[in-house]
Amino acid sequence: MREKYSQLSPSEFFYRNREVAGFSNPVRAVYQTVRELVENALDATEMYGLLPEVDIEVEVEEDNPSRIHVCVEDNGVGISPLEVPNVFGRVFYGSKYVLRQTRGVFGLGVKMAVLYAQLTTGQPVRVVTSTRKSRFIYEFEVMIDIERNMPVVRNLRVWGNDKAWHGTRVELVIRGNWYQARRRVEEYVRRTAMITPYATIRFRGPGSSLTFERSSTKLPRAPLIGKPHPKGVDVEMLRRMIESCDEETKLADFLSNNFDGVGPVTSRRFCEWAGFDSEVRVHELTVEELELLAARMQAYDGWRRPKPLTLSPLGEELLKRGVRSVLKPEFVTAVTRSPSSYAGHPFIVEVALAYGGDIPPSGEPLLFRFANRIPLLYDEGVDVAKKVVRRINWSVYKVKFPAPLAIVAHICSTKVPFKGVGKEAVADVPEVEKELESGLRVCARRLRRHLSRVERMMKLKRWEVTVMRYLDEVVDALSYVTGSDEKILRARMLELVRSRLSRRARVRA
Amino acid sequence: MSLDDRVILETLEKLGKKVCDQILRGEPPRLEIPARTLANIVWDPGRRMLKLGSRRIRRDFLDMGEAKKFMQTMLMLSLIVRARREGDYPTIRDLYYAGKHTIEYVDERGRRRREETWESQRESDSVIQDIEVATGLLREHMGILHDTKGKIVGRIRVRSGGDVIDCSRMGDGAYSVPPNPDSLEVLEVDAEYVLVIEKDAIFNRLNKERFWEKNRCILITGKGQPDRSTRRMVRRLWEEFELPVYVLTDADPYGFYIYSVYRSGSISLGYESERLATPGARFLGLTVTDIYEYKIPRNFIIKARDRDLKRAKELMSYPWFRESREWMRQLKLFLERKEKVEIEALSGHGFKFLTRRYIPEKISARGWIE
Question: Between the N and C ends of chain A, which has fewer C-beta atoms within 10 Å?
Answer without folding.
Answer: N
